[in-house]
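Hello Y.,

Per our agreement to keep a running log of every chain we model this quarter, I'm adding this entry. I've kept the format consistent with earlier entries: sequence first, then predicted structure.
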Amino acid sequence: MIMNSRLRTLLLLLLVILLNACASSQPENITDVCEIFEDRRSWYRAARSTEKRWGIPIAVNMAFIYQESSFRAKVRPERMRILWIFPGPRPSSAFGFSQALDSTWSDYQRLSGNRRASRKNFGDAIDFVGWYNANSRKQSKIDGNDARNLYLAYHEGNSGFQRGTYRRKAWLLDAAANVQTNADRFNRQLEGCRKSLNRGWPMRIFLALTPF
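Predicted structure for the entry above:
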């Protein structure tokens, strides 16, 4: 009976691995970063790699993607309406998880060396966010944990941030405050699950088969 239970656990873990490998839809619970990473372990590996490469905390980068796309891979800004009826052009070229513009994404591909990067690929998107935030830390002297000001620089560009172009944009200040709130929440959540996430699937399978 015990062995059957362990076998079921093993099969369940293997099934989750297979589902994770082909998952492309929006996570079910986008407010819990631990649940997101449990469902999409490749996302956690990408987020951890980005943190190591660019020095920006996972929680901050994830809060940016939450704000920009709610973890949707192919989202674009809604089209403007002509005469309130006919679909017109989109307000910008923003696309994907990070809502990066065409021009900014091209800069990232060229300067980061990730020339084949795609905005609908989560690993590339979070690396872009980490890269941009690292540049903001360098150019605008913003602390890596200061999600609010990093987001203002992300939206306005570092030259705009330094000129204070955001000061009269109440909606943007509200959005930046939300990013800080979400980054703080994600950080608290990660404190409780990061050790488990770092184990990886081989260790998780081993623990599932080990008697207690």
